[in-house]
Amino acid sequence: MSMQKLISSGLDFVIKGKGILLTAKPRPVFVREATGLVRQIGLLENFAINYGSVPITTTIAIYLSWVLWQFPAADIGMSYLLAVIVTIGQTMTYVFFAACMPRSGGEYVYQSRVLHPALGFTSNAILWYGSSGMLVANFGLLFTQWLSGNLAVIGFFSNAPQLTSVGTSMTSPLSTFIIGAIVIVATGLIAIASTKYMIKTQAVAMVISVIAMIMGLGVLLSTNQQQFINEFNTWMSPYAGTSDVYHHLISVAQSGGFVVPPIAIGATVSALGIHFLWSSYFQWSSYNGGEFKGASSIKRQTISMLGAQLFVGVVCAMIAYALVGVAGRDFLASTFYLFNNNPSALPLPVSPSPALFMILAANGNVLVAVIMTIAFLATLVQLLLVTYLMTSRCAFAWAFDRVAPTWLADVNEKWGTPTKSILLVLGLGVIYMIAYSWAPPWFYILVWTATYFPQIIITFLFTGVAAVVYSTSKKWKASYDSSPAKSYQIAGIPLMAIMGVFSVITMLVFAGIYLTNSSYGVTLSFGIPYSIVIIAVPIIYFYVVRAYRKKQGIDIDLAFKELPPE
Fold first, then answer.
1. How far is CA 22 from CA 8, 11, 224, 374, in A?
2. Beta partners for 494?
3. Model confidence pLDDT, tens digit, residues 327-369
4. How much is the pLDDT for 122?
5. Residue 566 near residue 34, CB atoms below 8 Å
6. In the structure, what pLDDT confidence band is assigned to residue 14 with cuts at 50, 70 and 90?
7. Please, which of 147, 409, 427, 554 could form a disulfide with 399 given CB 3.0 to 4.6 Å?
8. How many CA atoms lie within 13 A of 97 on its CB side?
9. Which H helix or E strand runs over 489?
10. Tell me, what's the pLDDT at 441?
11. CA atoms 473, 474, 477, 479: torsion sign
């Protein structure tokens, strides 16, 4: 037997003198017999991870203004609540799977074992693509924008023009890149240094943001609309040339053809496409399933995921209703319309935002402005940390099955973290930061939303399908019957299957919303081809790697016949 054929045979061998001694032991499928990851994440910390993937601060700051701009007829508070209700099925499929298959990797593990390895990898790779460099860079961009805007706001309310000047000076592309890159690298180093400290840091950031948002809600509830109008006009009239800036902005928007229509159920439903971008991501802890203590408990998984989702959704709805009640729907929608469509017609010294309006409701209190600034920046630090956690564990899981280069599964002995996987995401984040810093805002908004369409029709839809298959098929009966999900049934039907069907229906509805509304970028000229490429690339990659491993004598298909080791 030639040396080349021997190497490709998949058998272990040793060279003894002039001969070769073959052994019958095949090469191991997994990279090693244990992952090297430690179950050190507690219940509160796991809750914080899921909260940190879509915290209240960003959910209000980004999506409230976005909905009012794109769908002014939507019932904003109801749209938040509706988004939570329709995605409960999706969240619960991950709850059940995370307890039944408590390993790192999320739907990569679930789908690759239950449905097909290529589908599992593709589903997870699609999510990883949208959540790695692209999302990391987006948070770096937002950090710079929010730091700039909030410094300007603090300077404005404290009568410190120098501080306002510092804030506005950060808006250049170069400044945006430098600050964003520094934050990306700094948080990446925290993620590398210690999982324990990374988890503690993001939990503290959660506490800060929750306190600030509850404080903001209290401020709004203690203010009426006339007080807000008076305060807004007092602060803004020197810059607008009119004493009634509040109604002036509404008139300017109307003269530009923007009239806020009455609330309509159709607009509220259409706005769910925007809300999908936060309401469908409370399964973040499933990707670090191999590090959660008590991961086989349905109760602990439900508190971590569904608990975080309900908490964020309800508080956001309360803040949305309170803000609309105080500031007025016509005013908010008109202001965000002008900011996005005709900013030169918006005579304000600082950018409009929910945080700005909360500060105005507090009579321009500087302390409130400082607290809001700290909370929003802390939120972005948390978002970056949990994104590093999620994306690095996905890449780790691929490598552990030998689907990705095995060095991505290396765990640093000193720090206990998959350092190389984290560095990969960090590097991609800095590269994307270059594009985001110099590209126009519509570029990353459309690319961002178009990236999420494949997640709907592949990642989340097929996780729902996998939940049905796992809990009802004969092939998986023995595994399901011995799993913690077996105890949860309604009229003899597995609750896991019911939630899976609910999730599939929800994803099909979301797909319809994205395909029938150009606001989401999918139906634009690049949208569908872009989505096809995002789906096709990981499929092709998987089969190329599969063939390559076979030439090495490694049948990676064997890895998908069992769960990865702990």
1. 13, 7, 83, 64
2. 489
3. 999 999 999 999 888 888 888 877 788 888 888 888 888 888 8
4. 97
5. yes
6. very low
7. 409
8. 38
9. strand 489-490
10. 61
11. negative
Task: Dump pLDDT digits (tens) for 236-295.
Answer: 888 888 899 999 999 999 999 999 999 999 999 989 888 888 888 999 999 988 889 999
Give the helix ranges, DSSP H, for 71-116.
76-86, 88-100, 107-114
Higher-confidence residue: 8 or 485?
A: 485
Q: What is the DSSP string of 487-501?
A: G-EETTEEHHHHHHH
Q: Is residue 5 part of a domain?
A: no
Q: Is residue 10 part of a domain?
A: no
User: With contact defined as beta carbons under 8 Å apart, do 133 and 428 qualify?
Assistant: yes
Is 4 inside any structural domain? no
429 close to 439: Cβ distance less than 8 angstroms: no
Q: How many other CB atoms are there within 10 angstroms of residue 159's CB atom?
A: 9
- Confidence class of residue 11 from pLDDT cuts 50, 70 and 90? very low
Q: Give 202-220 as a DSSP string.
A: HHHHHHHHHHHHHHHHHHH
Domain count, the chain: 1
119 within 8 A of 543, measured Cβ to Cβ: no
Contacts of 118 (CB under 8 A, 6+ apart): 539, 542, 543
* Cα–Cα distance, 239 to 162 (Å, whole number): 17
What gap in Å lies between CA 506 and CA 227, rounded to an integer? 41
pLDDT tens sequence across 118-155: 999 999 999 998 888 888 888 888 888 888 888 888 88
Amino acid identity of 305?
A: M
Report the C-alpha dihedral over residues 383, 384, 386, 387, rounded to 10 degrees: 110
pLDDT tier at 192, thresholds 50, 70, 90: very high
Residue 519 · residue 95 · CB < 8 Å: no
**Average pLDDT value over all residues in the chain:** 87
pLDDT tens-digit readout, 489-542: 999 999 999 999 999 999 999 888 888 877 776 766 677 888 888 999 999 999
What pLDDT was estimated at residue 542?
A: 97
CATH number at residue 143: 1.20.1740.10
Q: What's the CA gap between 316 and 314, in Å, rounded?
A: 5
Q: Exposed, middle or buried by CB within 10 Å (0-12, 13-18, 19+), for 47?
A: buried
For 377, residues 6+ apart whose C-beta sits below 8 A from its C-beta are 143, 146, 147, 150
Mean of pLDDT values over 546-559 = 92
Closest CA to 130 of 503, 439, 432: 432
Nearest to 87 by CA among 546, 506, 421, 540: 506
Burial of 481 (0-12, 13-18, 19+ CB in 10 A): exposed
Distance of CA 117 to CAs 282, 377, 466, 538, 544, Å? 24, 39, 12, 11, 13
DSSP string, 224-254: -HHHHHHHHHHHHHHHHTSS-HHHHHHHHHH
Closest of 168, 170, 167, 190 to residue 179, by C-alpha: 170
Does residue 538 lie in a domain region? yes
Q: Which residues contact 533 (CB under 8 A, 6 or more apart)?
A: none
Domain, as residue range, for 345: 31-561
Structure tokens at 124: 């997870």
